[in-house]
Amino acid sequence: MTRIERFNAAPPALDKSQIEAVPDEWDRSGLPAWAYTSEEQLELERAILFRRHWQLAGHVSNAPEPGDYFCFDVAGERAIIVRGKDNQIRAFHNVCRHRGSRVVVNETGTCGSALVCPFHGWSFNLDGTLRTVVQPRAVPKLDPVEHGLVPVEFEVWHGFVFVRFQPGPQPAVADILARHEAEIALYRSSEAEPIGGSFWSQQIGSNWKCVRDVDNEGYHVPMAHPGLQDLYGHTYFDEPWQDGTTRSFASLRDESIRLWSVRAYNNILPEIDYLPESHRRAWLYIGMFPNLVLYFYPDSMGFYQEYPLATCQTVIRSSSYAIPLSDHGDATFNRRIRASQYLSQRIDSDTSAEDVQLTVWSNEAAHSSGFQGFILSDLEYGVKQYHDQLRAVMPVLRQSEPPESGRLESINNKLLGGQQ
Ligand code: FES
Ligand SMILES: [Fe+2]
After folding, report:
1. Residue ranges of E strands in 143-281
2. Residues of the chain with pLDDT > 70: what percent?
């Protein structure tokens, strides 16, 4: 059976009776093309979305020992998350108080008992306070707290570390994700440790919103993701967005599996005794506005996110975690779980490569004079709901034509004022 035959033979992935959020009539046209190409729009997104909304920086296990740290840069901001001598996680701007250099350069590492700036050598304690300056007689007396590293707001939720560079409209992460709390707690993510290295990232030639557009619907799965289709086929279900989060759930199939990696995964995945029956053979995704997906598989868990470098340049960043093998059963079980992790990551990396291609094509469309907007299906209602959230904080996106040069931000502010 070819991909096209398989796609056409597929029953609808969505039972409309389950999706009361999809009305009979709705605007199926998506965001205007200019939203994907405008430099001014991107600047607005940096200010309104990426600096003022929670961003997942990593997991507590990315800094397991005192002195360990990891970094997260977005929209011109840079954060360092460091574990202190008291074992507490803290977050600071990775900006030296002397002349603003990065205090640590690597994405992850360990710094012993102090963070030493590579520019002139000022050092900071793990709690952020200023420790020493070089040639102190050449520098006025500085207060260690007042002249310490500037804290960044952060929150640890089930082991995941979120940062927010500026105050914004979202409530606490725990409140945003409260409706998923009980389900995510099943996976014991606060006890998890990195697998397959620390962070993985890739730059792609596309606007960041094209990544989200592709990710916000499962309509393309039967056609574009043979691995996922084999893995869970039509059991995949996207729930509507609600209060800034969405949930997708799929159960593993056990028949008609063509790809060896999926067949092997299905055969080898052991029973995880701390998960309920309903989640032992299922893949779960929790999306959080504006740019995060947390995923939970029986064998592993993690996140992926995307953020812009330029209108047509985006970073996709991800990381995977799992409960340490020593917490599991015997050697056979551990071999099976390791193999399952390898296979689920392999299925994921194939899927990701397929999505990158779709994303790049979507981005190209926005630059074409032949592009006349989307015609979204009911199965892509999540794309529209996501765009609604963008339009709520950036109402300028309701304009079909790009605003006059230099006026986008002021028009947006005016529209925001009019909304209140
Ligand atoms: S900029 Fe850090 S010591 Fe000078
Ligand atoms: Fe996809």
Report:
1. 153-157, 160-164, 193-204, 237-238, 245-251
2. 94
Neighbours of 203 (CB within 10 A): 10
Pocket lining: 335 vs ligand 1, CB cutoff 6 Å: no
- Judged by its nearest atom, the ligand closest to the C-alpha of residue 217 is 2
Alpha helices for 23-88 (secondary structure H): 39-45
pLDDT tens, residue by residue, 343-382: 999 999 999 999 999 999 999 999 999 999 999 999 999 9
Domain boundaries, the chain: 3-52+190-378, 55-157
Specify the pLDDT at position 13: 44
Same fold, 3-52+190-378 and 55-157: no
Q: What is the mean pLDDT of the chain?
A: 93
Query: Tell me: domain 3-52+190-378, CATH 3.90.380.10, correct?
Result: yes
| Cα–Cα distance, 212 to 209 (Å, whole number) | 5
Distance 189 CA to ligand 2 centre (A): 24
Distance from the alpha carbon of residue 161 to the mean position of ligand 1, in angstroms:
27
In the three-class reduction of DSSP (H, G, I as helix; E, B as strand; rest coil), residue 204 is classed as: strand
pLDDT for res 330: 86
Q: Please report how many Cα atoms fall inside a 13 Å half-sphere around the Cα of residue 292, on the Cβ side.
A: 24
Whether 272 contacts 325, CB under 8 Å: no
The verdict on whether omega for the bond into residue 395 sits within 30 degrees of 0, i.e. cis, is no
- CATH 3.10.310.20 for the 55-157 domain, yes or no: no
Helix (H, G, I), strand (E, B) or coil at 108: strand
Q: 209 CB less than 6 Å from ligand 1?
A: no
Which ligand neighbours the alpha carbon of 248 most closely?
A: 2
Which tens digits make up the pLDDT trace of 141-188?
A: 999 999 999 999 999 999 999 999 999 999 999 999 999 999 999 999
CA of 239 to the centre of ligand 2 (A): 16
Burial classification of residue 91, based on how many CB atoms lie within 10 Å of its CB (0-12 exposed, 13-18 middle, 19 or more buried): buried
